[in-house]
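Quick one, tokens below. Sequence please?
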């Protein structure tokens, strides 16, 4: 549903929002979380985790191509965003 870049940006924003709460039960360092996003269709979804736990993100070429702010070559952008440590997955059809 989202490109690697978009997931990383969303994760950073969620991390910042959580830290701003200064809730006493949150850890000092990185906060671990999982955000499940359901799209309009049953096949459209995303799972976004805190960036620290996503060491080798899966890249769906379809999602990368939909990222209009991405690099001219979306797969190159995904590789850049992950320092080349990615798993390529085939997009699924509805």
């Amino acid at each position: 549903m989202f490109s690697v870049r978009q997931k990383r940006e969303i994760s950073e924003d969620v991390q910042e929002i959580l830290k701003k709460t200064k809730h006493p039960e949150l850890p000092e360092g990185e906060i671990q979380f999982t955000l499940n996003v359901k799209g309009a269709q049953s096949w459209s979804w995303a799972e976004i985790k805190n960036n620290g736990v996503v060491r080798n993100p899966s890249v769906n070429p379809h999602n990368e191509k939909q990222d209009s702010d991405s690099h001219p070559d979306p797969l190159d952008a995904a590789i850049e965003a992950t320092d080349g440590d990615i798993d390529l997955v085939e997009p699924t059809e509805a």
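The chain has a mean pLDDT of 80. The beta strands are 34-38, 45-49, 58-59, 87-88.
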